[in-house]
Design brief:
- This protein is elongated.
- It contains 6 helices and 8 strands; from the N terminus they run αββαβααββαβββα.
- The two termini are 23 Å apart.
- The longest helix is centred in the last third of the chain and has 18 residues, at 205-222.
- It is α/β, with parallel strands linked by helices.
Length: 224
């Protein structure tokens, strides 16, 4: 698992943030040893091939951890030149491992997009007359059946015609997984927590990242 973790530091996270979005924790798990995370020197990693998104998400998560007294560093500050599209070689993996150990990083919090769904909704409106020649409201003949039935203007479609219009909206949903590791443990005991979240219709990078970070860090504190 250790080899996999260091290989995963190469950033390949799909961009999900462009303003107001909805971020919701769907599921979470934490080990009995999660409290040990508080004493770690944590490297925060967002697997993205977009540097702006990487910086926004790593900074938001690191800020939430630091606000709770946990030492955390964004990976873009330590590994700014990693090529996210380049498969790490054995030498690169060993280099990352050496740097982490030499600088005392003994915890990792990493986020990655696990799924993306896009749905399209089309609505149609119009195709009727509205208003007529009575802009102040419905005339008196509307209030009784016979009055309406016999009134000359009810025989035909008078009023302002509202043409048909079609509106198509696209909803984007991202499933994001955040995992936390204690690197001081043996490989089969490093996993401390898994938090799965859903981000719906992201807009701005900063607000999406901040909303997401608040949710996952809170979940790490309270979920089981």
């Amino acid at each position: 698992m250790r080899k996999f973790i260091f290989a995963s530091l190469i950033i390949t996270f799909a961009l999900i943030a462009q303003s107001c979005s909805t971020s919701k924790v769907l599921d979470s798990w934490k080990s009995d040893n999660l409290a040990s995370l508080k004493d770690k020197n944590i490297l925060v990693v967002a697997r993205t091939d977009n540097n702006q998104a990487r910086m926004a998400f790593e900074e938001a998560i690191a800020n939430q951890l630091r606000a709770r007294g946990i030492k955390a560093t964004e990976s873009f500050k330590r590994f700014p030149k990693l090529n996210p599209d380049q498969k790490p070689t054995e030498a690169k993996q060993q280099m990352i491992k050496t740097i982490l150990e030499s600088e005392g990083y003994n915890g990792v919090v990493m986020s990655v997009v696990k799924d993306y769904q896009e749905s399209t909704r089309t609505t149609t409106d119009g195709g009727y007359y509205a208003g007529g020649i009575h802009p102040m409201g419905y005339p008196s003949y509307y209030y009784g059946f016979y009055g309406y039935y016999y009134y000359p203007m009810s025989y035909s479609t008078y009023g302002n015609y509202v043409p048909y219009s079609t509106t198509t909206t696209v909803s984007k949903t991202y499933i994001v997984e955040t995992v936390a590791y204690n690197m001081d443990e043996s490989e089969d005991k490093q996993l401390l927590a898994i938090v799965t979240s859903k981000i719906t219709d992201p807009r701005t990078m900063t607000s999406t990242a901040e909303d997401y970070a608040k949710g996952i860090v809170k979940s790490l504190e309270t979920s089981k």
